[in-house]
Structures are given as C-alpha cells and as structure tokens.
Amino acid sequence: MATKASENERADAIRWIQAQMADYGLTMEELKAAGCFDPPPPPPPPPPVCYRNAQGMSWDGQGEMPDWLRRAVNAGQSVEFFRIG
To answer: Which of 48, 24, 47, 42 minimizes the C-alpha distance to 34?
Structure first.
C-alpha cells in the first residue's frame, strides 16, 4: 500500500503532467502515437563470462579486473589460465 507521502508525490506528478499536456496542447492520442505508452525494451543480455576461477568467481573481461584475478596475476598466474573456452 502506498504511503501518504508517495500518494502526494504521485498526485503532484499527475498534476504536473496534466499541466505540461495543457501547455503544449498534447492529447493522449498524440502521446500514444509517439510511443509514450509502449513497453520499454528488454534489458540487454549480460556479457558472456570470459574468465572463471576454481571457486566459480567469474569476470566478463569488461571494466576493472576483479580482486580475485588481480591477486592471482600478482602471484604470477597468467590471466589466460582463467580464460573459459
């Protein structure tokens, strides 16, 4: 159930939208035609895992190297040792 604060915020948002529609002369039909009510696209699939250790910790190869892999590399292990496939 919504709280009183969120009910008030919701009502404020509705009033703001109504005011914007009035200011710009927008109709519901125009908003529908512009795709405003289309469902959002599905999120992209996660990137495939490229590296995994024996404990099942994984990394997709994007962004900063995770601690578990950095420690292994600093200890002399090759990154390629953990490559999958």
So the answer is: 24
pLDDT in tens, 7-53: 899 999 999 999 999 999 999 999 999 999 999 999 999 989 999 99
Q: Are residues 68 and 53 in contact, defined by beta-carbon separation less than 8 angstroms?
A: yes
Q: Give the side-chain half-sphere CA count within 13 A for 73.
A: 11
How long, in residues, is the chain? 85
DSSP 52: E
Rounded Cα distance between 14 and 35, Å, is: 19
Q: Do the Cβ atoms of 13 and 21 come closer than 8 Å?
A: no
Locate the domains of the chain by residue range: 4-33, 51-82
Which residue type does 37 have?
F
Closest by Cα among 34, 7, 36 to 15? 7
